[in-house]
């Protein structure tokens, strides 16, 4: 006779559905023997009803009021038996006061998504028009623990060895030129893994991939007549659920497995996966927005509210998540632990991360509990944590973000300095010297790895547009060109937009190569925007958040059209991988501490060993001594980089090399392709070992070996 389990047995029944008291933790829906445990927190609700649907059904098959004796503290939990896990959708109804002045916005008739749901159904295909009469559009579902990881685990690549590629899942392969089977999906990225490896990319940073509503704020473009959507996805519906619309199998509810398969394949190929996470606001907007989940469950807990009960708007999108409330802080921790443990995610980039350091009244905290908790969390101990160290409320913390020895930052000052220098602004040489060293002026106590170096990202001009447009051209967004940043530090090289002028196009390509070169020879962690390596354009639009079209889709034919940019990018990115002296963990000491005869770094100008840092200077050079690579642990070649942003050629005296070493040419952006860059290990010997004529607005890289 088989023994019967007696630990889980029903004690109650409602319309034929059997249930019992549940476990308070963990929050969310958890499978237990013969049933599902549901648990949800609300500090102010007076009652909670569990609502159960068959998948896709317009009406629920059951509504079970959770008995008050099942509530422990402010947590409602219930265990329901004999449910069809595969077909189940669930939500909650919360009853309580509607008193905005006190912070409460309960409505007992609204069905609410579970903040801890691991899958959201109901929006299963990208841009399929929703049923606007659906009583429950974002439906909580269960995720299953049956995925075979085959021994996979996060890669834990040292951060200084990474080359990051910021990518939009849909935009990367949606264009027909990508020639993949399921364009715009997680699956399609797998088809492009050989391309990523060829480029030397070993980390992809994905714009938001959790469930968001692309129909949010939809409208028609006055210029193109196309529907404008929430394309980037910085407007979260649920923090735990991968977006079904990004999965080829989303219509079958298989988005979890599809995403895990992608991550497993990327890891097999040595490529880390970082997620762009948006814990600063949600898709519920301000008091005029939709009630989806948080607002109807516990508005006062989840959002920062003014004394009048309105929403603080430090995110620029209508509301601000109350991240340093202990309950919300725990949700953020639980969420990131889940992505790290169940999806093997390698790192997280935090959107508008300065918000995470604000108190409930909006003031900046000197010791933010959330940031400290994330830095010291045992499950996240090996994950990279990267802050966008500013917010829309004016808090700018680049170089001063509370780091706890763990946090890196998107270095906005690196971006701004390089853009000004590349277009020939005066007075940038001194700042440039800091930026190429990993910004010791900002990160002296944290090391160069605190600096995520970038010149472009999803937000702003592409690298091509930076040298093709003096000002933004965002009319297609339908906001009268008022949206997007005005301080782009761009230069159109003498003509606004596309041109047939060969001189202008040559200069633009040269400046793109200059930018990529400086990025790859700078200490810190380089990040390249998707498509910059092949000259992608957004036609001057610097805020394409709403464009689901060729402005955001990567045109793979650019590999042929801009073959010189693509070839250059590929080789200069591989060059960085080949030279550990470019990837130091500690700041330079500006001295010789290994007895090589050379300091670890030295600065030069047209005269060796003397750099002109005066306001009018637009050129300098630097030399790295390879004997100091990894603080003298590894041996590398000498590297010498000339940067001449002057409008005339300049002759640079070269430092003399010892031990029979000779200067060889790695890259010279003034030369026509393919002589502008050479493959790793095949750099030609430089004829004149004493002087180098650097062309106007060009960058030269030499290797001494």
Features:
elongated; Glycogen_debranch_GlgX; 29 strands; 8-stranded parallel β-barrel; Glycogen debranching protein GlgX; Immunoglobulin-like; 5-stranded antiparallel beta sheet; Ig_E-set; alpha/beta; Glyco_hydro_b; hydrolase; 705 residues; TIM Barrel
Describe it for me?
- With 705 residues, this protein is an alpha/beta fold.
- It folds into 3 domains: 12-141, Immunoglobulins (Immunoglobulin-like, Sandwich), CATH 2.60.40.10; 161-580, Glycosidases (TIM Barrel, Alpha-Beta Barrel), CATH 3.20.20.80; 585-704, Golgi alpha-mannosidase II (Immunoglobulin-like).
- It contains 15 helices and 29 strands.
- The strands form 8 sheets. The chain has an 8-stranded parallel beta barrel with strand order 13-14-17-18-19-20-21-22.
- It is elongated, with a radius of gyration of 27 Å.
- It starts with 11 loop residues before the first strand and ends with a strand.
- The model has no long low-confidence stretch (mean pLDDT 95).
- It holds the Pfam family Alpha-amylase.
- Keywords: Glycosidase, Hydrolase.
- Residues 134-576 form the Glycosyl hydrolase family 13 catalytic domain.
